[in-house]
Structure formats: structure tokens, C-alpha cells
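Example S7 (C-alpha cells).
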């Protein structure tokens, strides 16, 4: 039985028939709630801290989307059966328990001092790393060993976040490491799906095809990994700035080779290019902040990578993959265009806030509202697709 047949044979609740269904929907809902919750606390002195905000956006929301994507993609990569039904429900329950525990710790000082509440959150990404390693090794899918390594490092960064926060209250190293891994995942996986989907779409209409992957892509990924690794360990070192600027420039050239300029007629395609552009821009801005922090504050590059690259690329993948795996046409409508406009506007406002101290607070409020609007719109529009069975073929 192949992956598609296994999914069709599943007879349980539709939401647990494929990994992206529960994780995409509830990660989007969590993102829509978590951003204004932290903003309210920030403006009014509430108990939800900046550390909670960082963790839940990076390891909570993004971790959930990464897991949803990989649970859906890895079986296609390896030719093995997908995780569905009870095992998927248990993994999702672990993610959900982690979100509840993190919120409870933020609101209750006694829980915040305890160790046990962080256990489900820490276990979640390690469990997913185990799933990826099992599938990659059993399927002898050596090409995706780097993905398994990156998921493992993400799990270690999440565990390190709790250890750092418990020891000193600030988890800067673990945060940078986690963000670096996600950025590299975007470079690796975004570097596969963006030209692939572009090629498929252009082949149907006779448009210009993206460049075939080759040595240039390998060099770009190596430079990106080196720059992000240096930033994780020594963010203020001048050499780090040079490496990140080089990585950003190479990724811009890589993106230009994919002919995104010819994809304007299909939002499901051009949004992938725009998400990758945010990655390149984030690398450049982070590189500039390493070399000239007085000119470009470090938060600017970080939010170009988070609100920009992560926010835009995850919604780009979530909309396309959700439509494809629930039997809907691979074509965007007004709702998708609205979602893409909201998340890009949120990222622009967040980056602009870091460059405009006098307008920081109003731009922060605008960014949070736009961000929540984008993810809430996704949940409302795609929730019925993700919670129900595929439509019957005519």
C-alpha cells in the first residue's frame, strides 16, 4: 500500500487522516491567539513574558507547522506508510499539552518554578525527530538525513530553551539556534518546493522554467548553514556579518534563477517566491546588524526571518498543501490573496517598527492585528477542509 492508498483506507476522524490536518489548523489558531495575548501583556504589564512569546512563536506555532508538513511529506519522500489515526492523535495531543502547559506556566508563578510542566513540550519535538529518523533510515532515504538532523537540533534547541530560561530567565542561545534551524529548513525545503511547483505550473502554460538544481544550490545552502551557525554562536562577531551577507546575496541569486517574475498570475506560486525573498532579506539584515548594530538593530533581521520568512512561507505551504491534500483545486482565490496580503503587511510593519523607534508601539499593534487576521482567516477558510473528508470525485 502506498501513501495515498493508506490515507484513503483510513476510516477514523478526518482530522487525523493526514498529519497536516490537525497541526496546520490548530497551529494557525494558536498563532492568531498568542500574538495579541503577548501584546496585551506587553502593553498592560500582564504575566505573559517576552520569553513566552518567543518560545510559542518559534517552537509552539512553527514547530507545529513543521511537524504537520513533515508528517505529510516524509511518507512521500520515503515511500513508507504515513502516521495516521491514533499515533497521529497522540502526537498532536503532546503538542496540545505543551501549549497548555506553557500558558499555564506563564499565568501561574508556582507552575513556572516547576520542571514537570515543560515535559510534554520538550518531548513533542523529540518524538517527531524519532519519527523522521525511523522513516528516513527504514526507507534508506539518505537524501533527507539532513532534514532528520535539523529536526533533532530543533528538538535540542527547544529543550535548551527550557534549561536556559530556568537557569537565567533568558534563552538567547537556544532561541538563535532554533531560529537558525528553521531558517535553514526554509532554505532546504523551500528550495525544493518553490522551483518544483513553479516548474509544474509553467509547464502547463508554456512559461519560462526555473533553473535546474545544481552546484550553485549546494554552495548556497552551505553558505547559509555556515552563516546561521556562526550567528547562533557569535551573533556580534564581524565574521558572522560577512557570512550572513554572503548567504543572503547567494539566496537572492538562487531565487532569481527560479523565474518568480513570471508567476504573477497564480498566487499559490508567487507567494512561495515572496516567502523565500523574506529569507534572503532576513539573512542580509541580520548580517548588517552583526556588523553595524547601530545602523540596523538586531531585532530587524530577526523579525524579517520570523514574521517575514517563517510567517509568509508557512502560510504559503499551508494553503497549497491543504488544498492539495483535501482534494481541492490548486488555485488561489480572494481569500488566499487576502491572507497573503495580511501576513506580508504584518511582517513589513514589524520590521518597520524596529527601524522607527518613535513609531514602534503603534507599528507593533498594527503588526499583531494583521498577523492575527491572517491566521484567523486561514483557520476560518481552511478549517472546514481540514476537519472533513475529501470531496467525492465526479
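Recovered sequence:
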Amino acid at each position: 500500500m502506498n501513501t495515498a492508498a493508506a490515507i484513503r483506507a483510513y476510516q477514523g476522524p478526518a482530522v487525523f487522516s493526514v498529519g497536516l490536518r490537525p497541526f496546520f489548523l490548530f497551529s494557525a489558531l494558536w498563532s492568531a491567539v498568542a500574538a495579541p495575548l503577548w501584546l496585551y501583556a506587553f502593553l498592560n504589564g500582564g504575566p505573559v513574558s517576552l520569553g513566552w512569546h518567543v518560545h510559542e512563536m518559534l517552537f509552539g506555532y512553527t514547530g507545529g507547522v513543521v511537524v504537520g508538513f513533515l508528517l505529510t511529506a516524509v511518507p512521500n519522500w520515503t515511500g513508507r506508510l504515513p502516521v495516521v489515526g491514533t499515533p497521529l492523535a497522540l502526537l498532536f495531543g503532546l503538542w496540545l499539552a505543551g501549549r497548555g502547559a506553557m500558558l499555564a506556566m506563564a499565568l501561574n508563578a508556582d507552575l513556572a518554578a516547576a520542571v514537570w510542566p515543560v515535559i510534554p513540550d520538550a518531548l513533542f519535538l523529540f518524538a517527531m525527530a524519532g519519527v523522521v529518523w525511523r522513516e528516513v533510515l527504514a526507507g534508506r532515504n539518505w537524501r533527507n538525513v539532513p532534514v532528520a538532523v535539523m529536526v533533532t537540533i530543533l528538538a535540542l534547541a527547544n529543550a535548551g530553551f527550557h534549561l536556559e530560561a530556568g537557569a537565567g530567565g533568558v534563552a538567547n542561545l537556544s532561541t538563535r539556534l532554533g531560529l537558525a534551524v528553521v531558517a535553514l529548513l526554509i532554505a532546504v525545503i523551500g528550495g525544493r518546493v518553490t522551483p518544483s511547483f513553479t516548474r509544474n505550473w509553467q509547464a502547463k502554460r508554456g512559461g519560462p522554467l526555473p533553473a535546474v538544481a545544481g552546484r550553485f544550490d549546494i554552495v548556497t545552502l552551505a553558505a547559509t548553514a555556515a552563516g546561521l551557525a556562526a550567528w547562533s554562536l557569535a551573533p556580534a562577531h564581524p565574521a558572522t556579518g560577512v557570512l550572513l551577507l554572503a548567504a543572503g546575496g547567494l539566496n537572492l541569486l538562487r531565487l532569481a534563477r527560479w523565474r518568480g517574475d513570471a508567476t504573477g498570475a497564480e498566487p499559490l506560486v508567487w507567494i512561495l517566491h515572496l516567502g523565500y525573498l523574506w529569507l534572503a532579506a532576513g539573512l542580509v539584515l541580520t548580517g548588517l546588524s552583526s556588523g553595524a548594530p547601530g545602523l540596523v538593530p538586531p531585532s530587524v533581521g530577526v523579525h524579517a526571518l520570523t514574521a517575514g520568512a517563517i510567517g509568509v512561507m508557512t502560510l504559503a505551504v499551508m494553503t497549497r498543501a491543504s488544498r492539495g491534500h483535501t482534494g481541492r483545486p490548486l488555485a488561489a482565490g480572494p481569500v488566499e490573496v487576502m491572507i497573503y496580503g495580511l501576513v506580508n503587511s504584518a511582517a513589513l510593519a514589524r520590521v518597520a517598527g524596529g527601524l522607527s523607534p518613535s513609531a514602534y508601539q503603534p507599528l507593533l499593534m498594527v503588526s499583531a492585528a494583521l498577523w492575527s487576521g491572517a491566521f484567523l482567516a486561514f483557520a476560518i477558510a481552511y478549517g472546514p477542509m481540514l476537519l472533513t473528508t475529501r470531496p467525492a470525485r465526479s
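Notes on this example. The two ends are 24 Å apart (CA to CA).
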